[in-house]
Amino acid sequence: MTGFGRGAASGDNFSVAVELKTVNNRFLDINLKMGSDMQAVEATVKRTISDRLHRGRVEVNLQYDRTAEVSYELNRPLISGFISAMKEIRDEFGLPGEPDINVVARIPNVMSPRKVEVDGALVSGIENALLTALDDLQKMRESEGAMLKEELSARLASIEALVPAIADAAGSVAEEYRQKLTKKIGDMLAKSESQIELDQARLVQEVAYLADRSDISEEISRLTAHIEHFRQIMDEESDVGKRLDFLTQELNREANTITSKTGNMTVKENALKIKSEIEKIREQVQNVE
Q1: Domains of the chain (ranges plus CATH)?
Q2: Is the pLDDT at 244 greater than 80, yes or no?
Q3: Distance between CA atoms of 86 and 98, rounded to whole angstroms?
Q4: Is pLDDT at 126 greater than 60 in this prediction?
Q5: Residue 53 contacts residue 21 (beta carbons within 8 Å)
Q6: What is the pLDDT of residue 68?
Q7: The model scores a pTM over 0.70
Q8: 188-215 pLDDT, tens per residue?
Q9: What distance in Å separates the CA atoms of residue 32 and residue 17, rounded to the nearest whole number?
Q10: What is the pLDDT of residues 65-112, one digit of tens each?
Q11: Window from 57-66, 185-194, 275-284 with minimum mean pLDDT
């Protein structure tokens, strides 16, 4: 589910800001963007996020600023080697002058800010900023989730409205088979010179066998039960996405079976409409936490 959240915190000598962006993903995928000095808090950040979120790709942007005076570390071996080389040039070629501090200061990597000490106060500040960002993100996701629930409910209602037509048409399957078999056998006998009488008992057995093979009453019952179960899960508060994903697969399985078990056009047409609605549900369920 998509969303954005931001949080900030500060201490005696620092300020931190955390931005979270989420996009759809079947699993939880956390991608951190932070300075190398902050690598020590990576595990804490991931654990805090995974305690609140269960699905989606999460982009985490952690910005850290020092508010106290910054001290620098000198690359003494580099400076010493540079000054020695300058003196060697002067002595060897008889050139005047002394090494200048402005020249030394411009040497790449001659000095660098002292690394941040990740102490308890900084870790606590990062956690507070992260929790604020998660709360902000959750509000946006809840708003989107409410709209998503309405759409899924409408799709389920569309499927439910198609089931009675399938059930009614399925009730006439046996009679359709009897008529088709009677006509087919009658046509065959009309073309034959032999005087063979139609065995009605045998015909009834064949019709019963074919009707049993094409019976979709169980599939209709399971389809209806899955719809009701789907609605119950949507009313729950957390960790529903994967279960809805599984139920969507089960709905599609029943629709496929209904389509394949009978040649009745009314059943097939309505089952295909159900499959179309299920496919739209499948796309949206990927967004559910």
Answers
A1: 3-69+118-140 (3.30.230), 72-113 (no CATH), 146-285 (no CATH)
A2: yes
A3: 8
A4: yes
A5: no
A6: 64
A7: no
A8: 656 665 555 655 666 556 655 555 566 7
A9: 13
A10: 877 666 788 889 998 999 899 888 888 888 888 878 888 888 888 888
A11: 185-194
Rounded to whole angstroms, the Cα distance separating 139 from 145 reads: 10
